[in-house]
Every structure is written in structure tokens, then in C-alpha cells.
Design brief:
Elements lengths: L4 H12 L1 H16 L6 E2 L5 H6 L4 E8 L5 E9 H11 L4 H10 L4 H26 L6 E2 L4 E4 L5 H4 L8 E10 L2 E9 L9 H8 L22 H8 L4 E5 L5 H12 L3 E2 L14 E5 L3 H13 L6 E6 L4 H9 L4 E4 L4 H12 L3
Parallel strand pairs: 8-9, 8-10, 10-11, 11-12
Antiparallel strand pairs: 1-6, 2-3, 2-4, 2-5, 3-7, 6-7
Helix pairs in contact: 2-6, 2-12, 4-6, 9-13, 11-12
Length: 352
């Protein structure tokens, strides 16, 4: 496992500036669910943290750098926080949310949205490290995220590494209708930490990963057998346009995925061709101001698509806010798995 200085720096910031880290999390969760959020800190040795992050359903996200190298760091959301933030991201209705919370069965499109929420939170944490330390920092949510039934606390940390001490920043926050969600960031410098390896190993024994058969091991790259064929069969009936810088490799990659789905692509131009109203528009940008301008121009054109998707490979809170204020229906983190593209197009193809 990597012993990069980046997770070590994150561990030090959690230790020394935990409240600032939690405030950053509160701001980003608020932007994702569209409601004010006030995080209540959880102490590492409190009964409450043991109750929330032990023997409960959690979404666990390993962290890695942009070369795919794993870090001794992780993000965890309890089921309530994951479902409500993911549902807000994918515009899911209240009735669907209640069904998911009742059955604890997370549909694939919501599973993917929860992963994208985690990407945005990780991007915000990387920005916070840069702001607090003036040192370069860039990491993302790893591909192998999953929903698990956690061991007793602090066994969750053993899912990543049970041989090192950990620092954590965790808290609860109100979501609405009396619902309380919880979030946790953990990192290690492999030398010092609030939670010792002995405490973790007491729960995990010699195991550093869970073999619980009830765990969901699907990842954001896991194929959905039915989605791709359905979208490909009906794709040609959709007119799709991709807005952004024409030379952007991410834009080109997205276009290739759309072609695989059989979508009819408009010419690669900076604006939508005259006399054409596409069914779906994807707007690719790394800048909140640029995204806002492109969405504004799309609105002003009078050619409103049935679905508008904001896209970025560097998701941030400001980008999500710009997407929401600009009228985007979805936010897509790039590079996107093919089944996620298929699911978005299927939303337009599905009968009303």
C-alpha cells in the first residue's frame, strides 16, 4: 500500500484541523442534497460512533491517486447519507427513497450516483488539503467501492488496513424529515493515530478484508446486463449533442461512448447547430464559471433538451452548484462507465 505523503498530510490535518474538515464536508453535503447541513462531530471513542459505523450497512470508498495507486485513506457514508445524497444527485423521488430505505436494496443507477457523490466529496477534500496546507493534493474515490455490513467498530478501518493507526473525522447531520445521516473520513501516516492497530485487530483478527457473503461487491465499472443492449437498440432515435472544448480528450471519450450506444451525434461544435433541438445535451467542463456560461447559453438558445447532463472529470462543490443553478438534470463524473451512459439515455427512451 502506498505510503505517499498525501494521506499522511491528510491524517495530520484531520488531527489538527478536524473541525475545518467537517465544515468542508457539511458545505459539500449541503450542496449535494440542496439543504443546509450542520455536522455534529463524533468522537472516535464514543458509543455513538460505534453504533453508527459498527454492524450497520455502510458505503465504503477506498481512496487512490489519479494513477490508481491506493492510499491508506477511506470515506464512509451510512446508508441514510448515501441514499439521500445519491437520490438528490439523480433526482430520485421520495417514494423511491422510502422503498430503498425499507428494503436496503440499492438499484444500479442509485449505486452509481452514490459513487459520483463520493467523487465530489473526495474532490472537495483534496481542495481542502491544498487550501489548508498550500501543498499539491489530488485524489479520488477508488473504483472498488461497495455497500457492506460493517464489523463492530473500528473494524471498518481494517477493510483498508488493520496494521496501521488511523485518524478520523466523522459526524452526523440532519437530512430532513427527522432523518440523520453520517459521514466519516479516515487517513493514516502509518506512524501515529487516534485509533490503534490493536483496537482494529481485536475486531478483525488477522483479516484485513471482509468475506461477509452479504456484502455487495459491485463497483462503478460493473456491467448492467440489460442496460446496454436496450440503449443501443433505441439509441439512433435520440439526437445527442456534447458541448465543451472540441480538443478536450474527455469530451472525445464521452462521444465515443455515446456512439457505442447508437446515439445520433450532432457535429462537434461549440454550440448547437441552428434549427436543431437535441434530445440530450452533455456539457463538459472543469470550471464552474465556464459550466454556468455554457448552461446559460443553452437556455438562451431556446432549444431546451429533454435531458441536460453536466459533466466533469474534476467534480467540485462549485461545479455541482453551477449545474443545479444552471438547470442541469444530472451530473456525470468522467470517465463514465458505459452502463451509466446507457441508463441516462434510457431515461429519455422510457415511456412517460
Amino acid at each position: 500500500m502506498s505510503t505517499s505523503s498525501e494521506p499522511a498530510l491528510f491524517a495530520r490535518l484531520i488531527r489538527e484541523q478536524r473541525d475545518d474538515i467537517l465544515d468542508m464536508l457539511a458545505e459539500n453535503v449541503a450542496s449535494l442534497i440542496g439543504k443546509d447541513v450542520d455536522i455534529k462531530p463524533l468522537e472516535a471513542d464514543s458509543p455513538e460512533i460505534a453504533r453508527i459505523f459498527g454492524r450497520k450497512e455502510l458505503f465504503v470508498f477506498p481512496l487512490e491517486n489519479h494513477e490508481g495507486e491506493p492510499y491508506p485513506s477511506l470515506l464512509a457514508l451510512d446508508l441514510t447519507a448515501a441514499v439521500y445524497s445519491g437520490a438528490a444527485f439523480s433526482m430520485m423521488g421520495d417514494e423511491q427513497i422510502r422503498e430503498v430505505m425499507k428494503t436496503k436494496e440499492v438499484p444500479e443507477i442509485l449505486f452509481d450516483s452514490i459513487g459520483e457523490v463520493a467523487n465530489i466529496i473526495c474532490g472537495a477534500a483534496a481542495n481542502a488539503i491544498r487550501d489548508m496546507s498550500n501543498e499539491p493534493s489530488e485524489f479520488r474515490r477508488g473504483a472498488d467501492f461497495r455497500m457492506v455490513k460493517a464489523k463492530a467498530w473500528p473494524g471498518l478501518l481494517g477493510e483498508t488496513d488493520a496494521t496501521i493507526p488511523w485518524e478520523i473525522a466523522a459526524g452526523t447531520f440532519g437530512i430532513g424529515d427527522g432523518k440523520i445521516g453520517a459521514i466519516l473520513f479516515a487517513s493514516s501516516d502509518s506512524q501515529t493515530g487516534t485509533i490503534s492497530p490493536e483496537a482494529i485487530q481485536e475486531v478483525c483478527a488477522s483479516s484485513t478484508s471482509s468475506s461477509d457473503p452479504d456484502q455487495r461487491t459491485e463497483t462503478s465499472d460493473h456491467a448492467v446486463p440489460s442496460a446496454t443492449p436496450e440503449a443501443s437498440d433505441s439509441g439512433p432515435s435520440l439526437c445527442v449533442h456534447v458541448l465543451g472544448v472540441p480538443t478536450d480528450a474527455r469530451l472525445m471519450g464521452l462521444r465515443q461512448l455515446l456512439v457505442l450506444q447508437g446515439a445520433k451525434l450532432s457535429p462537434l461544435l461549440g454550440s448547437i447547430p441552428s434549427q436543431e433541438t437535441p434530445d440530450v445535451v452533455f456539457v463538459v467542463s472543469r470550471s464552474a464559471s465556464d459550466l454556468a456560461l455554457r448552461l446559460e447559453a443553452l437556455r438562451d438558445s431556446g432549444r431546451t433538451p429533454a435531458l441536460c447532463v453536466a459533466c466533469s472529470d474534476r467534480p467540485t462543490r462549485d461545479l455541482v452548484l453551477a449545474a443545479r443553478k444552471g438547470g442541469a438534470d444530472e451530473f456525470l463524473v468522467l470517465p463514465a462507465p458505459q452502463e451509466r451512459i446507457a441508463a441516462l439515455l434510457e431515461k429519455i427512451l422510457a415511456p412517460a
